[in-house]
Each structure stands twice: as structure tokens, then as C-alpha cells.
Amino acid sequence: MEKNKKIQFWQRYIDGLYTAEDVEELRKMERDSPADEWLDDVAKEVWEESALLPPDTDVERERHKEEARRLLRRINRDRKTLFRRWAIALTGVAAMICLVWGGLKYWHVDSGQSVMWLVAATSYGEQKEVILPDSTRLILNACSQVRYPDRFVGESRKVELEGEGYFQVTHRDEQPFIVATQAFDVLVLGTCFNVKAYAPDEIVSVDVESGKVQVDLPEAMMRLKADEQILINRLSGEYRKQHHEQDVAVWRNGGLRFDATPIRDVAKVLERRYNCRITFAAGQEFDNFISGEHDNQSLEVVLQSIEFVSGIHYRVNGNQVLLYKNPQ
């Protein structure tokens, strides 16, 4: 790998992102040179580049380089995990059927020790607080489910989330906390963040309230700090990282927030919140994106707001809602 390309790679890592192709290039270089020589050479070049920057960034960049060393050692130990490919194109999926059960369930054996797995789930319009074995606090949003062991053993603390949850993770340097979803994994040591990963939704996301998290995507890795968010489109595979200074997980207090959200995802949010069934008029195109925030409002008020900003009309019959554009 030529010098400029190596430096560009490390700069991208410092910014929080690199791809599977980048890592493959590094592995090729690892095979062609002594184990530590190539890494020391790249680190030296990045240090020389960073020396040209303002002094107040040097300490931060040195810390990032050390993080990079640790990360590459981990990648080398677990090659298969890094390049796993998960399906991200989910189309034609009906509104999520919510599970309304919980309790004890034997799941598998971890690290040679029998571990009992617990399941907590919520129904339509319901929230639930769960205290995990390490005292981590989790609040589940409507129609969500978490699976977690009765005790954390091994090198990490791993839970499996379907739906949406707000985490306040107990800090443990020696045992990272992992939230596994169908679309990505979130790795932290101890912080507060929100994960939204409903299987039927087009857009999934991670919002960080405090601390830092690492989001492992099928072909890339993104690092987020406080007041940052990543939005991932499961249909196109596109994702974007952005800064925001809004409250995280407003749903905990009855709020709703849409940020250029596809109208069909908005409909799923309303179904889960208000226990209703929303359908779209046949033969009409609904490609609208909805933005706005609602503070503990009724379904009727939210539908009125959507109608005002998008021109999409609605008709309510009991718990059935029809959205349409042309007169019905």
C-alpha cells in the first residue's frame, strides 16, 4: 500500500470510518512484511502528518492511533466476524407482529458455561424498564424485545435487540457491552445511547447521548460521540453520520420525532405507539419524507400535522386509518 493511501486510511479511521476493502489491503501488507514493521511504519507516517496540525489535536490523535492498534489486533483474531454479511434489503414486510411474552428461556452455552437467557418484550403502546445483570438500565419502546443472559461471562456483555431501546450502560473497561441487531452491532464500554432497529423499517439508527459508541456495519465501522447520530437505509445500504443537539429518545416521555423519515416508516411508528392499523390507498404513490416533533399528542393531532405538511389525507374508522392523496 503506497504511503499516501496508508495515511488516508488512518485518517479515515481517526474520523471514525473504514471499509472492508481497506482492511483487506492492510492484511495483504501484513502478509508481505514482518508482523510489526508495517504497522509501526504506518503509525510513524500518521504521526508525522498529525504533527503538522494544531498542537491541541496531538494528544487526541495519539490516543486514536493506540485504539487503532488494539482494533487491528482484534480484527486479526476474529477475521470471520468482521466480514460477515447480513441481509439489509427487506421489502414488502407487513407491520411488525409484537410479542407479548417474557420470562426465562434456555438459549445456549456461553464460554463453556451454561447460561440462562431472559427475554423481555413490549406490546403496542407499551414501554418497559429492564435492569440487566451488570446494572445496565434499558428502557424498551413499544413492540420491542431484548434477549440477555442471567449473567455476563467471557470477554464481552452481549444482548440481542429487536425494535428500539434506550441504554444506560454500566462502565467496564475489561468487558465491552454489545447490542446486536439484524442490521448492525453497537459496541461500548459505558455510555448512554438509543438504538432503533425494527425489522420492518427502512431507516434504522443509533443516537448517542453521552460517551462514545462503535457501530459495526456489514462493510464498514463508524464511531460516534455524544450528540452524534447514524442513520442507515436498509433498502439502499446507504448511511450518514450527523451532529444533533436534540434530546435522545424523546419517546420515553411520550414524544415523537421524525427527521426526513419515509412516510411508511412514520406509519409503522404510529401503529406501534397508538395500537392502530394504517393502510395506504391502492394505486397511489407515497414517497413523502416527514419531519417534525410532537409532544405527547393524540393520534388525531399527529395525523392532522402530517396532512398539513405533506398533503396526505387520512380517514379513521375505529383503530383503522387509511392514508390517501386523491379523493376517495
What would you say this structure looks like, in words?
The chain has helices spanning 3-15, 20-32, 37-50, 58-77, 79-82, 263-274, 299-310, and strands at 17-19, 103-110, 113-121, 128-131, 137-140, 145-149, 157-168, 177-180, 185-188, 192-197, 203-210, 212-216, 220-225, 228-233, 239-243, 255-262, 277-280, 289-295, 313-317, 320-324. The protein is built from 7 helices and 20 strands. Mean pLDDT is 78; it is low at 49-63 and 75-111. The strands form 3 sheets. It has a 15-stranded mixed beta sheet that branches. The protein has a 3-stranded mixed beta sheet with strand order 17-20-19, with helices on one face. Strand 8 and strand 9 (185-188) form a beta hairpin. It starts with a helix and ends with a strand. Helix 1 (3-15) packs across helix 3 (37-50) and helix 3 (37-50) packs antiparallel against helix 4. By secondary structure, the protein is of the alpha+beta class. It is globular, with a radius of gyration of 22 Å.
Describe, in short, the structure shown.
With 328 residues, the protein is an alpha+beta fold. It is built from 7 helices and 20 strands.
Brief descriptors of the model:
328 residues, 20 strands, single chain
